[in-house]
Amino acid sequence: MTITRVGIVAKRGLAAADHLDRLAAWLHERGVVPIYESETAVLARTGVAAAARGARLPGGTAVQTDGAPAATRPGPPVETCSREDLPQRADLIVVLGGDGTLLGTATRIAQSGRDIPLLGVNFGSLGFLTETRIGELYTTLEAALDGRAAIDERTMLKAEAYRSRELFDSRIVLNDVVFTKAALSRIIELVVSVSSGPVTKVKADGLIVASATGSTAYNLAAGGPIVHPRVDAIILTPIASHTLTNRPIVIPGSEVIDVRPYMDESAEEIYVTYDGQSGYPLQKGDSVRIRALERRLRLIKAPERNYFELLREKLKWGER
Fold first, then answer.
1. 196-234 residue pLDDT tens
2. What distance in Å separates the CA atoms of residue 219 and residue 239, rounded to the nearest whole number?
3. What are the extents of the domains in the chain?
4. Which residues contact 85 (CB under 8 A, 6 or more apart)?
5. For residue 308, what pLDDT is reported?
6. Which one of 18, 66, 91, 99 is the catalytic residue?
7. Which residue of 35, 57, 114, 157 is 20 to 30 Å from 7, comparing CA positions?
8. The domain 5-155+296-315 belongs to what CATH superfamily?
9. Contacts of 296 (CB under 8 A, 6+ apart)
């Protein structure tokens, strides 16, 4: 796949104008059109504010804010579009920020139905998914443009919520779907089944349904196992279980998981959240069905660093 247009998304409020301007100029020099996500454009000096003053990139390229081609201008323009539209416009997306920014972008790529790679550059505190360091950005990006970059294919999860047997919500996540209690609730009860039949009734503060990629996120903090992202698996991890027999379990990625809140008259509120970014309360009789998405996310890997090196670097895994 030839990469001619690169989308750029920065964490909201990130002070990265220098990096954004340099990245746009670097792409321009190689004949690649940079496309700023709309809020990212405001963070860059060559973004919306600069465009109003008639600013230009190196080489005389005019900055564009409406996505239209630059008439009679040399070289590809800097364009802007919404976060939702970016996957349809770009051949590759670069995320500057933390894992939260990457998770949102990954979901939008999956929803677009396009098979485009994603490069995460760490500007956050941990950056387990945004594993590329800023000093490695241009080497990694050069490899991506040349078709030499190493690609990790990551399984995503699709969650469909039903009420009175009618589908009322559908989400795609990279890390996890989490069922939790309200702030002042005691415990919640969830009935869990898979394609082959009943699994268990969970009595706990909550339940995490995680992908292998999400095994190092909330799942790990709740005592769940680390699962290599190439393993075809889904993880079920109770949060602060009130029953010693409720332990984390790893099941085949081919299973469809059905989670139903067990709610009687005295039951507390139960919430479902998606990748820690959005969610809502469930009602009695609701069910959420979770399965692996057939289309996988393509993450560009950091150079010369494998998964176990990443565990040691980010999580101090194996250290005494």
1. 899 999 999 999 999 999 999 999 999 999 999 999 999
2. 9
3. 5-155+296-315, 157-292
4. none
5. 85
6. 99
7. 157
8. Probable inorganic polyphosphate/atp-NAD kinase; domain 1 (3.40.50.10330)
9. 153, 154, 155, 156
Task: Express each pLDDT in 124-135 by its tens digit.
Answer: 666 788 888 888
Distance, CA of 289 to CA of 166 (rounded, Å)? 12
Alpha helices of 58-179 — where are they, by DSSP H? 86-89, 99-112, 137-145
Say which amino acid occupies 243. Answer: T
Pair of tokens at residue 197: 């039949």
pLDDT tens digit sequence for 243-272: 888 899 999 999 999 999 988 766 678 999
pLDDT for 48: 43
- Euclidean distance between the first and the last CA atom of the chain, given in angstroms as a whole number: 45
Structure tokens at 54: 């008639």
Backbone phi, psi, residue 41, to 5°: -60, -35
Asked whether residue 34 carries a pLDDT value surpassing 60, the answer given is yes
| Residue 99 bears catalytic tag | yes
Residue 223, SS3 per DSSP: coil
pLDDT of 117 higher than 90:
yes
Task: Assess whether pLDDT exceeds 80 at residue 77.
Answer: no
For the record, the structure tokens of 235 come out as: 């993880």
Q: How far apart are CA 278 and CA 280, in angstroms?
A: 7
Task: Compute the half-sphere exposure of residue 299: CA atoms within 13 Å on the CB side of its CA.
Answer: 27
Spelled out in words, what is the top-level CATH class assigned to the domain 157-292? mainly beta
Residues 94 and 27: beta-carbon distance below 8 Å: no
**DSSP 8-state code for residue 4:** -
pLDDT at residue 98 greater than cutoff 80: yes
